Amino acid sequence: MIADYLVDLEKRVEAMEKEIAELKVQVSERQKISVEEVVGQISKLLERSSISQSAENLVHST
Question: Mind listing the pLDDT tens digit for each residue in 2-56?
């Protein structure tokens, strides 16, 4: 009876460990996406800033 209970507990622990591993993968994928989104947004802002600066330079040089 106790042996059956221990086997059941071991199976539950294994299932929980698998769930935790899956959740870790999901979290890391979300973080990766978030970082990629932020980098993309920063790149767009830098590009806009560069275009604005170029336009200002043209205005001031004429």
Answer: 999 999 999 999 999 999 999 999 999 988 888 889 899 999 988 888 877 877 7
SS (H, E, C) the chain: CHHHHHHHHHHHHHHHHHHHHHHHHHHHHHHHHHHHHHHHHHHHHHHHHHHHHHHHHHHHHC
**Distances 52 to 38, 43, 45, 55 between C-alpha atoms, Å:** 21, 14, 10, 5
Alpha carbons 16 and 9: distance in angstroms, whole number: 10
pLDDT of residue 62: 64
